[in-house]
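Dear colleague,

Following up on Tuesday's group meeting, I ran the structure prediction for the two-component complex that the binding team flagged. I've pasted the input sequences exactly as they went in, so you can double-check that nothing got truncated or mislabelled along the way. The structure tokens for the whole assembly follow below. Feel free to forward this to whoever is handling the docking comparison.

Inputs:
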Amino acid sequence: MDAIKVIEIKKSVFEDNDKDAENLRKELKDKGVFLLNLMSAPGSGKTTTLIQTLNRIKDKVHVAVMEADIDSDVDAVKIREATGVSSIQLHTGGMCHLDAEMTRQGLDNVELKDVDLVVLENVGNLVCPAEFDTGAVRNAMILSVPEGDDKPLKYPLMFTVCDLVIINKTDVMPYFDFDLNRCKEYIHQRNPKAQVIPICAKTGEGVDAFAQWLLAEVNAWKNN
Amino acid sequence: MDAIKVIEIKKSVFEDNDKDAENLRKELKDKGVFLLNLMSAPGSGKTTTLIQTLNRIKDKVHVAVMEADIDSDVDAVKIREATGVSSIQLHTGGMCHLDAEMTRQGLDNVELKDVDLVVLENVGNLVCPAEFDTGAVRNAMILSVPEGDDKPLKYPLMFTVCDLVIINKTDVMPYFDFDLNRCKEYIHQRNPKAQVIPICAKTGEGVDAFAQWLLAEVNAWKNN
């Protein structure tokens, strides 16, 4: 296999991120490409969730993955080895988030004419990524059980901007003080429209529901 | 009990954070006050660890706690209810870290003449807080087992700036693919001098070692 492509992302020089994001979304719409921005805290299981999901959808849509990290290319390598899906690594040079222009720098390295769906795995961080519209069609985030059910109270913006909240590591629920109903309540206080899907990426439980959500969103974007 | 004091922290207008941090450290030295900057990802167990530790040291040193959060005062309330230790809440107004000037705004609300030790619980984030010297005498961070042993590879600066890495939630080690020796190796690749203390804040296992480290550091700062 070729070496993983590593893109060194430069800080955006444009000031109007919201406008850049809108322009990027329009461009993606014209090209029939759906962009998912996947966010979470460090270690919540984004990469494992992606691997499980990609293996369920890769025969139905053409997918590419962009893995953002401050350093290392372990995630991009993992994704490609476990799924065969085309994956590039974005290095953010110490920066804690991606904005629309930085996302575009990544997309410039993806053959957009060959794909229906690009998944952007954002930097592991519940604060800064929520503040910057990347130009994605949908935002999703993963909250893992060990992090606690009170996170929507502490990181309100993240839960406000996400269309979907995936609750991962449900297999360890018995070992943690995590109340799924209380967590859903906190999420809906922040964002009444947010969908919530509990999964266990390790065993694959619940991942079908996420895969179905994603395929439906991609189809709606391409066909409406 | 009185209501928890909530301080709305304003963004720093000073540009030279390193100089501000040095000045703050000197001032704390003159006053005989030790400041610990405690960092981690969301949900790693900072507050539970603090509660266990405060209950072990509060009869030996005079302590105050500053809880930084984007929103809510749940942590400050928890700390005070569980330990009786004086605790204030710092609201960062959406910001993802504290710098030295913001830390000073918090310290202005602590009776420094009555305390030996102030613990600053920084915003839950492995990226931005590592970039800003708060003026603390020591930096410590908590990595919890469910986050994975590869975090020193992905968040290098955090592990480089910390004098102590606490590895929390060791009780769930059997349920996660976490290799303590591999993790220590990754930490020491980033920072050969970092001390590593494994604990389980829920059961209290290992917390004595952290409490002893902290007391020794406070005494060294006050007496040298």
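The two ends of chain B are 37 Å apart (CA to CA).

Cheers,
M.
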